[in-house]
Amino acid sequence: MSKKQTEMNNQRRAIKTRRLAGKSLLVFVMVVFGLIVIFFAQKAIFKTANGVNLADRTQKLYNQTSVMHARRGTIYDQKGQPLAENTNTYSLYAVLDHKQKSLTGKPEYVQDKAKTARVLADNLPISYEKASRVLTPKHKSFQVEFGSAGQNISLSTKKKIQAARLPGLNFVSQPARLYPNGMFASHLIGLASSTVDQKTKQPQLVGQMGIERTFEKDLKGQDGIKKSQHDNYGYQIPSEKATEKKPRNGKNVHTTIDPSLQLLLENQMSQVDSDVHPKVLNAMLMDAKTGKIVAAAQRPSFNPQTGQGLGKVWRDTLTQDLYEPGSTMKIFTMAAAIDSGHYRGSDTYQSGIYHIGNQIVPDWNRNGWGTITYDKGFALSSNVAMAHLEENMGPKTWKNYINRFQLLQNNTSDFDQQSHGVMQFERPIEQANTAFGQGIQVTALQMMQGFTAIANDGTMVRPRLVDQVTDAKNQKVLKRYPKKIVGHPISATTAQQMRKHMEDVVYKSYGIGHDFQIDGYRVAAKTGTAQVTDANGQYENGNDSYLYSVAGMAPAKHPRYIMYVTMKQPQLGSQSATKEIAKIFNVVMKKALDNERSKQKMTPLPDVTKQPVAAAQAELQKQKVNSVVIGTGATVQQQSPAPKAPADLSARVLLRTDGQLKMPDLTGWSKEEVEELARLVNLQVNYNGTGHVKDQSIKPNQDFAEHATLDVALN
């Protein structure tokens, strides 16, 4: 083969090879292109990639959904002061990474660690040394936190820290509950704590006990949702898909608690608790006519603001603890015997010990007082007298009266998780025991309801803690909880006779309730002593194994208030149980009666609206009522308290004029008085501390407008 022919063959093979390679490359490109088309077609049709829904991912990238938290309703006392209200607390963290900068290039990390530690030590419960250690971690960290010292920070503390203008310090807010009075009817008001909603993953306040739990549906409100669209840079853009469902704030619950009486009761309870250290101490004061519980407290108790003491007793011992009431039960036994026609007070019996079969009923004085009348036996708190009365009535009649007084029933929905009463009533000895308060277990609230029949001439009234529920703006009443009569277990004549016998306990020379005499008032009362059972149901022995109590009402002729105090297993030593209980009963009952007496003497405030300021002040001064003018106008537009309110309610009357509003000097004002001002001129008030005003952000005589924010420091 010639050289020329060989070159031609090689050239033909090269061309063929290039054509084959070109075809192969074309096929490869077409396959790849086809795969790409299929890949994107699959995503376009099915909108998924690697198991991720692309439509949802895109939606989340440019569409944002945020929860708009509803404000939990406020719980108020009888005078409109908040007992539990919404607030925000803050958690603090510090950024240490030097790469962290703002959009303008300013540093957003801690630069001066020494200064930062000093500011934190001045405002938080943390030492300078510890703050410095946290800000200087051993290992490189993007950010650090400060443990419990950096949690639950108040708004005022947050502002103080921010005032130092320290870069790198950041705060995260979370909803919280403010209990401004601390340990104040704590188990009745209850506790709401922050939890994470499993659906929204957002923090929310949920009632755990007390009114916070019982009225959860009313208080909690309903969160809103806001949906919006954003561009690549995070800025919101107009969109038809943007929607907003506004939150519905919670309703407000108004209780029957009288703040002055509650505070006095808490103080007296703390004193007795400190003196004799009982295992449980309960007290309840009720308006006999209406069933309103105006003060109630227990020990052990807790501070819902700090949580201190919460681990000692979670339950409300006033409504959830069952106990044998002892001799206060004799009020019902005697009333049943009188009402059923089985009582003659002048009849006599042998006191000391009474045999029922092979069992005995002993008096607290086993030697007895000889042969005495039943009238005297009640004043001496004789168990034997009650056993005879139960036997005279018969168990069927006696049990019928126990049911008529509803002593074993739950009696109101205002209270959280009440307990049903129980009793042993099969054998004759058990039936006799119930007549003097052993072998029957009740709650303090059940006893209180029964006592209303004695105080109200046979009409039994349901105890209540809540007066009304109002809307979120606190302007419209949505629910009312009026007085409710729940029975007439005895006649008016029986009730009147019973109060006379209860007076004998206090005033007869042989009565054992002399410690409960109150100057200026006639008291009807009955003391009680009951043995306490152990976990196995066996009666304990020893000097400190009793539950002491008193049930009393005053004024005896026409009772306005009923009070019941129980003290379980105190360490008395040489001290008297009745004298310790009297420190609570006498002081609080007298204050309540004095308040009632003063109300009857009060004159209503005049209506000074539309009058010239000088004339209005002069008219108020005639009633020895001080006034504070808020504004520069010449005419009074509004007054607070309102016209016809009792003058004694007003340390001062606020007069709003028709001119520019000017802030008065609030120094020395109580929180209640500041709230009165806030309601009159629509102020938003932030409080720091407790007590009376020592400083205010809007200074005296400074101009301000409605809806302004006022920061108040209390001392």
UniProtKB/TrEMBL annotation:
Q: What is its main location?
A: membrane
Q: Can you say where in the cell this protein is located?
A: Cell membrane
Which key words tag this protein in UniProt? Answer: Membrane, Transmembrane, Transmembrane helix
Residue ranges of domain PASTA in the record: 657-715
Q: Which residues cross the membrane?
A: 20-41
What's its membrane topology? Answer: Single-pass membrane protein
Query: Which protein family is it in?
Result: Belongs to the transpeptidase family.
Q: Which PANTHER family match?
A: PENICILLIN-BINDING PROTEIN 2B (PTHR30627:SF26), PEPTIDOGLYCAN D,D-TRANSPEPTIDASE (PTHR30627)
| Name of this protein | Penicillin-binding protein
- What lineage is on file? Bacteria, Bacillati, Bacillota, Bacilli, Lactobacillales
